[in-house]
Write a structure and sequence with these properties.
Helices cover about 60% and strands about 20% of the residues. It is of the alpha+beta class. Strands 1-2-3-4-5 form a five-stranded antiparallel sheet. Helix 4 (about 130-135) packs antiparallel against helix 5. The longest helix has about 80 residues, at about 45-120.
């Protein structure tokens, strides 16, 4: 077929020419749409990477949770330890305070008892009234009455002997204490002169004194008053 015939054929069949173009365009479209299929396998690695990230993050989340539990436990232990230490501190302070109070009370009772022992052992037949005043000083009303009667009875011995004695404190020690009542043993050194022994004779007098701190630290009982009259 000659060129002229081909052109005539094309002119007569315009539809055929358009169909060829459409077919060509369709082939191109199919080719382009098929190209993304070549990259399709890339979707699998992406999903695999996501799984790897998830699997990697999983243990980290558990690790943080365990760390949090450990930290919480440490905080609780610290709070408990602090509370215990605080309680022990307060209890220790209370014990020390109670011990200091008891020590101070013992010292006060010992001083009262020792001072009384010195006054009771110091007497002069020329001034027995002054001695009797000291003998009942700081005592309860009941004991004061008893000591006054005892002093009057002792005058009958002291005056004829021309008794004169002086005393120096040695030591006093709380023997017992209960309910604020203290029993104290006191010791004093006594130098005594009498008509029978003009040279001073040394002796040790012992007194047992009961003191009630609940009753203004009054002396409620005394033993050993006669011990100061050992040597004659």
């Amino acid at each position: 077929m000659t060129a002229d015939e081909s052109e005539s054929q094309s002119a007569r069949d315009p539809d055929n020419s358009d169909g060829a173009k459409a077919a060509s365009e369709s082939d191109g479209t199919e080719t382009r749409s098929a190209e993304p299929d070549a990259g399709q396998p890339d979707a699998a690695p992406t999903e695999a990477s996501t799984d790897e990230v998830k699997s990697t993050r999983g243990p980290k989340s558990v690790s943080v949770s365990v760390r949090g539990l450990i930290l919480g436990g440490l905080i609780v232990a610290l709070v408990v330890a602090t509370s215990v230490m605080g309680w022990l501190y307060v209890d220790a302070r209370h014990q020390l305070s109670a011990r200091d109070t008891q020590s101070a009370n013992n010292a006060r009772a010992e001083k009262i008892a020792l001072d009384y022992a010195v006054n009771a052992a110091t007497m002069n037949y020329k001034d027995l009234q002054g001695w009797k005043v000291k003998l009942i000083a700081g005592t309860s009303p009941e004991l004061s009455k008893k000591l006054s009667e005892a002093g009057t009875s002792m005058e009958q011995v002291l005056v004829p002997l021309q008794w004169s004695s002086g005393a120096q404190p040695l030591v006093a020690k709380v023997r017992s204490s209960a309910g604020g009542v203290y029993v104290v043993d006191s010791f004093v050194s006594v130098q005594t002169k009498t008509v029978q022994a003009p040279d001073a004779l040394q002796s040790t007098a012992t007194y047992s004194t009961t003191i009630d701190s609940n009753n203004n630290w009054q002396i409620t009982d005394v033993g050993g008053i006669g011990s100061a009259m050992g040597p004659k």
